[in-house]
Amino acid sequence: MPSWHAMKVEDVLRELGTSLQGLPVEEARRRLQVYGPNVIEEEKKVHPLEIFLRQFKSPLILLLIFASILSYAVGEAFDSIVILALVLASAALGFYQEYRAEKALEAIKKMVAPQATVLRGGEKVVVNASEVVPGDVLLLSAGDRVVADARIVESVNLRVNEAPLTGESTPVEKMVDPIPEDTPLPDRANMVYAGTVVVYGRGKAVVVATGKNTELGKISATLEAVEERETPLERELSRLSRWILVFMLVVAVVVSLVGFFVKKYSPIDLLLWIVSLAVAAVPEALPVVVTSSLALGVYRMAKKNAIVRRLPAVETLGSTTYICSDKTGTITKGEMTAVKVWMKDATIEVTGTGYEPTGKLLVGSKEVDPNGYEGLRLLLLAAFNNNDSEVRYQDGRWVTSGDGTEIALKVLALKAGVNAELPRLGEVPFSSERKRMSTLHELGGRRVVFTKGAPEVVVPLCRYISSMDGRVEELSEEAKRLVLAVNDELAGQGLRNIAIAYRYLDDGRSTITESDEKDLVLLGIVSMIDPPRPEVKDALETCKKAGIRVAMITGDHKLTAVAVARELGMLGEDDIVVTGKELDSMSDAELYEKVEKIRVYARVSPEHKLRIVEALKKRGHVVAMTGDGVNDAPALKAADVGVAMGRTGTEVAKEASDLVLADDNFATIVEAVKLGREIFENIKKFLVYLLSANVTELMLPLVSSVLGLPLPFTATQILWVNLVTDGPPAIALSLEKGEKDLIYRNPRKPGEPIFSKKEILLFLVAVPLVFTVLLTYAFSSLLSLGEPEAEARTAIFTSLVVAELAMAYAWRSLRKPSLTLSPLDNKPLVVSIILSVTLQLAFFASPYVMHVLEIHPVTINDIIYAALVTAAMFVSVEAFKYLLSKWK
Ligand code: ATP
Question: Where is the Cation-transporting P-type ATPase N-terminal domain (predicted)?
Answer without folding.
Answer: 3-76
